[in-house]
Amino acid sequence: MKRALQHASLVVLLAGSAAFAEVGPGDTAPDFTLRDVNGKTIRLSDYRGRHVVVEWFNAGCPFVQKHYETGNMQSLQTRYTGQGVAWLAINSTNPRSADYRDAGRSQALLRDWKMAPTALALDEDGRVGKAYGAKATPHMFVVDPKGRVIYAGAIDDKATWKHEDVKTARNLVAAALDEALAGQAVSTTSTAPYGCSVKY
């Protein structure tokens, strides 16, 4: 619990800062090239023509743990990749951080947590995270088939690390995807992200 409070206080301090630009709705999502934890090169532009979720991830964060230990994130990943959405999880944790997990440990995490993204990639120098203005884990972005951001912000409307809150939360990423996949305009395009500070 103490660690969770420490993480939470850090993100509250960062949420109002403008240390780097933040990509928002209507912006073109910055292209990037990263290697996933299995050694495969992934590029955002490779998924042009599909909806893409970009999720900032850190397994050491209690807010991330909330969504994975309840199976919530895996359920979303499975549901939407099954509808043709690409789901790219990115870990921008600096190798000097205690939360850092190298490719091998990240592969084990994929298995142990039964994660189901299209790819989990390491952004060790933080270049991609800073290009997006990712502030928290999880910080979520939904990109349309033309490469434009149509949602940016929190995963849901319950900004806690309490597992039980997953059941009563309104999932904002799911809402955006459901509307976009149905050909409708996204009604909520931006919210304040919550979670742990990204460990750049």
Strand order of the main beta sheet, please? 5-4-3-7-8
Give the total of beta strands. 9
Structural class: alpha/beta
Radius of gyration: 15 Å
Distance between the termini: 23 Å
Report the β-strand fraction as a percent range.
15-25%
Largest sheet descriptor:
5 strands, mixed
The chain-level mean pLDDT equals 92
Secondary-structure element pattern, one letter each: HEEEHHEHEHEEEHE
Poorly predicted spans? 1-19
- Overall shape: it is globular
Explain what the structure shows.
- The chain has 200 residues and is an alpha/beta fold.
- Helix content is 29%, strand content 17%.
- It contains six helices and nine strands, in the order αβββααβαβαβββαβ.
- The strands form three sheets. A five-stranded mixed beta sheet has the order 5-4-3-7-8. It has a two-stranded antiparallel sheet with strand order 1-2. Strands 6-9 form a two-stranded antiparallel ribbon.
- β1 and β2 form a beta hairpin.
- The chain is globular and about 40 Å long.
- Mean pLDDT is 92; it is low at 1-19.
